[in-house]
Amino acid sequence: MGGISLQSVERSVAQTPLIGQILARLADAERIVIRAIKAHLAEIDPPDDEPPDVATDESPATPTDVLRELLDRSMYSRPDDSRNALYLSLLSDLLPDEARILAALSDGSTYPVIDIAEPLLGTSTVLVLTNASTVGRAAGVSLPHHTPLYVSRLVLAGLAVIGPEGGSAMYDDYEMLLTDAAVNTAIAKARRGIRSARVIRRTVRISELGQELWEAAK
């Protein structure tokens, strides 16, 4: 008795429309199930190059969150904790050259400061240069031409204060400062025709807060 060949079975199926339709529907159903399984697996473990659409639990902090945290911390902070937080914040904002200037001022020394302004017109004053000082070179800063900026930042941070013109003992210091290249450039820029630039003499010294910070950190 001869065996039944595959070709004969295929011919029989093809000649039986009902069986062919059933097999076709089963194949379609199988493909649908496979697609559904793949989609489900992709949702559970998405590919690395396709980040999930669902947002992570850790969202960026908002200004409200930061303020609330600061207020909560302030309720339980001791004076020493608050003082240390202030000192650390001030120190973190200092540039290395500014730290050298603070060190130069820490012994209570006073240094000359010069502002250069345009000739006075009415009640207005237009400053061309502010807080030029010899304290930068005295402190040995790396960028002495940026001393006006360093002094301004220290004053703004409350670590140094600007005072009135120094006495006769500072005469030579002011004269030396007037030979500075940045000061001479500002004088030339501020000049208006025959009217010379205004030279405003003042002084800089360490503030009470600056002294506290120095004593706490040295």
Automatic annotation (TrEMBL):
It comes from Mycolicibacterium pallens. This is DUF4393 domain-containing protein. Pfam families: Abi_alpha (PF14337). InterPro entries: Abi_alpha. Gene3D superfamilies: 3.30.110.190.
